[in-house]
Design a protein that fits this description.
The structure is a single chain. With 221 residues, this protein is α/β, with parallel strands linked by helices. It has nine helices and eight strands. It has helices at 3-7, 21-34, 69-81, 93-97, 101-115, 131-143, 163-173, 188-197, 207-220; strands at residues 10-14, 38-41, 55-60, 86-90, 119-123, 148-150, 178-182, 201-204. Strands 1-2-3-4-5-6-7-8 form an eight-stranded parallel beta barrel, surrounded by six helices. α2 links the parallel β1 and β2 (38-41). It is globular and about 45 Å long.
């Protein structure tokens, strides 16, 4: 995998709640320079002034997932109206932990309907879940027509993406859905591990540093 191939898999992500409009504008400009796939920002930053050719992504029910279903659906619909082409929603973890998988899946379906033509990525917060729960939620996401399953918000104290979770998610959804690894991926080696495990998209806040490792590696030789 070369630098451009990896860049084309990256959602360049800025979700700090204190991020200002000026900081977001600088971040979008950086994303353009890096040649990444998408920029992912909080919904209050939409619409972006000049995203150029970048895919615009945002989050929904973030970061807890503990919002009412109608609120999540409205948030997703509003984000799409404001220019989002992709929406990353957090599942209702209380329902998942209780084994109420179908109810959690039905909520995903409601948000998917609200997204219209926009892609929906389903954040399952894999570090919190057992293998059984990960598999169950991947199956629910596939059942209701989501486009991706995603490991993590990056905000949960349990942690972010793991190779094991990505492998399990990839095996469960097959080629039907994409798999986004996100949370705690801070080096080129870690990014490559996630791709090798089956990730088709990477959520990174430190994209510039990771992509610069290609140049640094070349210079070292």
């Amino acid at each position: 995998m070369n630098r451009d191939q990896l860049a084309a898999m990256i959602d360049h992500t800025l979700l700090k709640p204190e991020a200002t409009a000026a900081q977001v504008a600088d971040f979008v400009a950086q994303a353009k320079d890096l040649g990444v796939k998408a920029v992912c920002v909080s919904p209050n930053q939409l619409p972006l002034v000049d995203p150029g050719n970048l895919t615009v992504a945002t989050v929904c029910g973030f970061p807890s997932g503990a919002h009412a279903t109608g609120v999540k659906a409205l948030e997703a619909r509003t984000a799409v109206e404001n220019g989002a082409a992709e929406v990353d929603m957090v599942v209702n973890l209380a329902w998942v932990m209780a084994g109420d998988y179908e109810r959690a899946g039905d909520e995903i379906a409601a948000v998917k309907a609200a997204c219209g033509d926009a892609l929906l990525k389903v954040i399952i917060e894999s570090a919190v879940l057992s293998d059984e729960q990960i598999i169950a939620m991947c199956r629910q996401a596939r059942r209701v027509g989501a486009d991706f399953v995603k490991t993590s918000t990056g905000f949960h104290p349990a942690g972010g993406a793991s190779v094991h979770a990505v492998e399990l998610m990839s095996h469960t959804v097959g080629e039907t859905l994409g798999v986004k690894a996100s949370g705690g991926i801070r080096t080129l080696a870690a990014a490559k591990q996630m791709v090798a495990a089956g990730a088709t998209r990477l959520g990174l806040s430190g994209s510039a540093a990771i992509l610069s490792e290609f140049t640094d590696s070349t210079a070292a030789h």
